[in-house]
């Protein structure tokens, strides 16, 4: 049981550290990014909680977020050629012309 708690704390700390490092400088709240990274590293058990509550950007506006800037719609994912109706029409036309 103590091993599981330790692994959970390690996972939480690593998540918070990675999140603090990858957050753009201009999006951190209350303190500069470098100070937040130091807080997460030096105050292992509570530094991550401080980061999530006080330093992490609020809202889903970060790059790679599931939502766009309006918070409502998901950005359009790239489509492959087999999902493009125009490409499929052109391919069908080419195949018919070869026969």
TrEMBL record:
InterPro entries: CLS_N. It is found in: Cell membrane. It is a multi-pass membrane protein. Residues 11-56 form the Cardiolipin synthase N-terminal domain. The keyword Transmembrane helix applies. Keywords: Cell membrane, Membrane, Transmembrane, Transmembrane helix. Its main location: membrane. Residues 71-88 have a biased composition (Basic and acidic residues). The chain crosses the membrane at residues 34-54. It holds the Pfam family PLDc_N. One of its GO terms (cellular component) is plasma membrane. Residues 57-88 are annotated as: Disordered. It comes from the Bacteria. The keyword Cell membrane applies. This is Cardiolipin synthase N-terminal domain-containing protein. It comes from Streptosporangium becharense.
